[in-house]
Design brief:
There is one protein chain. This protein is an alpha/beta fold and 318 residues long. It has a single domain, classed as Purple Acid Phosphatase, chain A, domain 2 (4-Layer Sandwich). The chain is built from eight helices and 13 strands. It has helices at 37-46, 56-64, 66-88, 116-127, 134-137, 188-191, 196-218, 258-267; strands at 2-6, 23-26, 94-96, 143-145, 150-152, 166-169, 172-177, 227-233, 271-275, 282-286, 289-293, 301-306, 312-317.
């Protein structure tokens, strides 16, 4: 079996270099970033100043206004959908999770996260989202969104949701976790600064995500088959999740997902494919699990070949 893994596209139409594959893997961030990304860069420079303490969403609305932000978001999804339609045109199964750019977050009662506690509670709610934005996926016939529930793959017509879901295809279990854009585990330094009750609440919310993903894995129908884990954010503390941008507040920091790392350590999937950290292109290992980050842009692709014994035969960066 040959799997084509495509990196974070952010609205760019991929240049498919090798068309000999059985299925495609997308780790999210399909929607376009060209209008909003410059504001992220500006914000990241601002928060390097310890005296600057403002939520990004509120700051962005002050910068450009709600109306213009909605226009940018709509355009971002429309461009992402065109990109996804092109990928769909190859007629092969697409196994995908949503990224933080894909406007697919879950709902939260916390509308204005003003401190560390409310910010993290809100983030946990958002990361529990289990659907990909329908404005992005409508009419995409071959899409299989991989989040939160085990289903059986029965062909193109029955492809369904794959975020937090486990799907068996050609002798491989596929399971996914998307949306996360930072290490999810509560920071010990900040836990000491908040109330004990709040700290317990954050730990409980964090565990809720882990439990939901663990349940999906345990419900897979054929437990003897190897697993391919698709996560938007690459696992935490590897060679692939370090920020290399000297202008960023997070320079030299690990930005990967602690949820994804815990999953790999506990269940030892054959392969974990992820992205989010654009400069982390490459491969690494967590125990027996091969971790792969194809990188960013229209040419960021990896071809994985799995042999009849369900072992990795070849990993090729195209």
């Amino acid at each position: 079996m040959k799997l084509l893994v495509i990196g974070d596209l952010h609205g760019r139409k991929p240049i498919i270099k090798n068309k000999d594959f059985d299925a495609l893997i997308l780790a999210g961030d399909i929607c376009d970033d060209r209008k909003i990304a410059p504001f992220y860069k500006k914000f990241f420079k601002l928060i390097k100043n310890k005296d600057f303490d403002e939520d990004f969403d509120e700051w962005l609305i002050r910068e450009i206004g709600k109306k213009r932000l909605k226009e940018y978001e709509k355009e971002s999804v429309n461009i992402g959908r065109k990109t996804l339609k092109y990928i769909d045109s190859f007629g092969k199964p697409i196994f995908m999770v949503a990224g933080n750019w894909d406007q697919s977050y879950g709902k939260s009662r916390i509308k204005s996260p003003e401190d560390y506690y409310s910010h993290m509670r809100c983030a946990y709610d958002l990361w529990l989202g289990d659907k990909i934005n329908p404005s992005l996926t409508k009419g995409i016939k071959n899409l299989n969104n991989c989040m939160f529930k085990c289903i059986e793959f029965k062909g193109i017509k029955n492809l369904n949701n794959c975020m937090f879901k486990c799907i068996e295809f050609k002798g491989i279990n596929f399971i996914g976790y998307g949306l996360s854009s930072a290490p999810e585990k509560p920071n010990k330094k900040f836990l000491k600064k908040i109330k004990d009750k709040e700290a317990k609440s954050l730990k409980k919310s964090y565990k809720k995500i882990l439990d939901k993903l663990n349940t999906a894995y345990k419900e897979r129908k054929n437990k003897k088959l190897p697993t391919l884990f698709i996560t938007h954010n690459i696992p935490y503390n590897t060679k692939l999740d370090t920020c290399k941008d000297k202008e960023s507040y997070a320079y030299k920091k690990h930005l990967g997902s602690t949820i994804a790392r815990t999953f790999c350590e506990k269940f030892r999937p054959l392969i974990c494919t992820g992205g989010h950290v654009h400069e982390g292109k490459g491969k690494d290992k967590i125990g027996k699990t091969t971790i792969i980050n194809p990188g960013y842009g229209k040419q960021a692709q990896i071809l994985i070949e799995i042999n009849e014994k369900k072992k990795i035969k070849k990993i090729e960066f195209l």
